[in-house]
Give the backbone structure.
Amino acid sequence: MNPLTWLYYRYIFLRGDVLERVVTALAGRPDVPTRGTWESEYEKGLWNRLYDMSEQAHNAVVLSYIAHLRPKSSILEIGCGEGTLLSRLRQIGYRTYTGLDISEFVIHRCQRFSDDKTAFRAANAESYTPSTIYDVIILNECIYYFQDPVGTIERYCRYLAKDGIFVISIFDSIRTRPICRRLKQTLSVVDETLVSNSKGTWHCLVLQDPRLRESAAVPAPDATLSAATVSR
């Protein structure tokens, strides 16, 4: 990372003030990967590293949160990739699951997992509009690839059921620390677990929107949770 980029993420990124707006207007935010980049990297197998031993601990925390807090729920997984979590989510049990990823290549590969309660969509998460609401929205190692990570999460609050939760895993870095900080300022923290190994450290978060009202923005046949509500 060059010094200017380091300074931007250390002191400017997601400040939410005049300085950030001025710097962003003049220089723009550093680029995030395009759809074409994702397609190419998946086709080359570069993301097979998500199956490495070093990735298993933070995945286990994400899965344990769901098993403990919202078993047999409706789930939207943003940035599902090749379905790394799906086999273990099936062991936990879910009512419905939708996997979303920007890569058409990887979503095509995931179609073999489709059934009457499991579906996949190829779309940009920053502009995708769900057709229903969910008890759980998972963002496992993907939020820092968004142009507007916090704004995107705030938009998805409209598609959470009352007492629904975000389960988010974020690898710790100079870029992701302000994202993690702003998320915890914007939403209510139900729980946070830090996972560290030889590769680095992950922040595993369970977040809720304290502004959720009795009725959600998008109607669904049954938005009632099957698990007990967890409060801070």
Q: What stands out?
A: The beta strands are 73-78, 94-101, 118-122, 134-140, 160-171, 188-196, 201-208.
